[in-house]
Amino acid sequence: MDWTMWVEWIVKGFVLCLILLTGFAYLTWYERRALARIQVRVGPNRAGYQGLLQPIADAVKLIFKEELTPGHVYKVVFILAPVLTVVPSLVLAAVVPLGTSFNLFGREITLYVADVNVGILYLTSIASIAVYGIVLAGWSSNNKYAMLGGIRSSAQMISYELTLGLSFVTAIILGNSMNMIDIVNEQRGLWFVVIQPVGALIFWIATLAEVNRAPFDMPEAEQELTAGYHAEYSGMKFALFFMAEYQKMIVISMILATLFFGGYLGPFVDQVPLLGPVYLFAKVIILLFGMIWVRATWPRIRYDRLMSFGWKILLPLSLAIAFITATGILLADVLNNQLFFWSIPVVSIIALLVAVAFIYRDLRRKSHGRI
Amino acid sequence: MVPLSWYLTLAAALFSIGLFGVLVRRNAVAILLGVELMLNAVNINLVAFWRYSDALTSMGGQVFAIIVFAVAAAEVSVGLALVISAYRRRNTVIADELDMLKW
Amino acid sequence: MTGAQIIFIVVALYTLGSALMVVTTRNLIHAALWLVSTLFGVAVTYALMNANFIAVVQVVVYIGAIAILFIFAVMLTRKDMRDSGPQMNKNWWLGALVAVLVFAGLAFMLSGWSGFSKVAADLPSGFDSVSLLGEALVSPQAYVLPFEVASVLLLAALVGAVYVAFNRK
Hints:
The structure holds three protein chains of three kinds. Chain A is mainly alpha-helical. Chain A has helices spanning 3-38, 54-64, 75-91, 119-140, 144-175, 180-186, 192-195, 197-210, 222-225, 235-260, 275-297, 303-334, 338-367, and strands at 101-104, 107-110.
């Protein structure tokens, strides 16, 4: 424990925060441009080359906006809530490995901030703290729309957290560890998305609900709740909520890439360790495009259907997936037959098709008015 | 190194504070808050005994701490459901005012 | 006084202070938030005892689920934002007396026990309590039966809570 270690930790944490903050700024630009493309518009292209300075202009505008604190709010909690939303989204990234390690001035520098042996549980615990920001923002605003938005949002996040946890279990079983670095190393031969495509899909859907993205953006449904839990927020405090949402999008794409898409792995990553972050970054950009694409094309789900989708379809499906994965690995291990191992993706896809059939039947019944 | 007695004293103090909350609060939700404090005190004791007696040979203390987590979750979900149900019928959650045996 | 002892004292005072605020604050939402703070202190206490898994599970289960349920219940069971009327019953001094007596009794009983000021043995480096715990939970020689009973209890509680809180038209 010499002082250089502390310096290394502080520098790494600082760099990670900076990556996330600039990532947030450029993610807004990326999303607006991609959305515009899909909707046959141009998008922001005035400030700088291709509109690349647009995020900076937005930031300046938000900072100089007047900060209103409505008179009827609970001051302390009102100010605490945006902070409680942003901080978890920043510290989540600490356990995600960005690469292996490289030598700098004869000193081995690892490309991750923390090596926690219960890394995945750490992720779920931090994600569960993030609920507080939203529920407290809704409560302290002292406004019924904000309160409804807060309650909706926290109910949604808690419900989808179960599914999220179970898809984490799938990755834990496949990787045989709760440490994210070990999980990435297990994927050297084969990405887990090949073995468990349904698990990755469920994880992705659950994270969309966790970060309140379309089509699950009920908490801020403008048409029915004015703006949900952040109706009373303005200026920089509003920007913090915005920031938290986009940072969580980035971090959750990083986690998905790490758990199912091989993380920093790619060709020549062992020879040139600095390629690791580049590969991870490329994977994150592709996954983020998926999120933006969904937002551009899917309508918002009605709230009761959102809840029944979470509890009646996703939760049983994710339980089945965890069970199938565990059974497949156990059978392949005991009977020493790789065929059972390869039955995991096949049986999981059959389970997914059964779930889709249930949704189809349910929707058809509803449209014929026989409930 | 911290001796076992410190953890046990912390747990005893936490338990007493929780007991105080259960005995004196009027709001049913606040009473449940006190029960949570008492359960946490028990868990500190369980983990402390695991750490100080047989950390290497058995995991009994941690296993029972996890079972206490499960019991606490069950207790809170049923307890708060009862409170909400009572609030719906009687429009109050003050424990003293819920004094009719049947309504 | 070593570093570990100072950390323990700070954490313990923080936990107990938050716990006192839980039982004395008038505003129930604030009481629930102080409960979150207490639970966090308890999680740090577990981490001090090298029980990493329990510490993280404490955050997931207690802070992430149970305390949120409390905040929900407080929000759903009030007519306005203020807490009117006395929050404690008129025998509060009796309750305080009982609590102090319980603490004194516990302290007296424990101080007579021979293992009271035991010091923990150092854990070997690389000691992985998580995998040991996982094996203990599902091994038939150890605790598989209580584990399964706990899962049945959770299922029963889930069904019971839905049934009790369901609004019959």
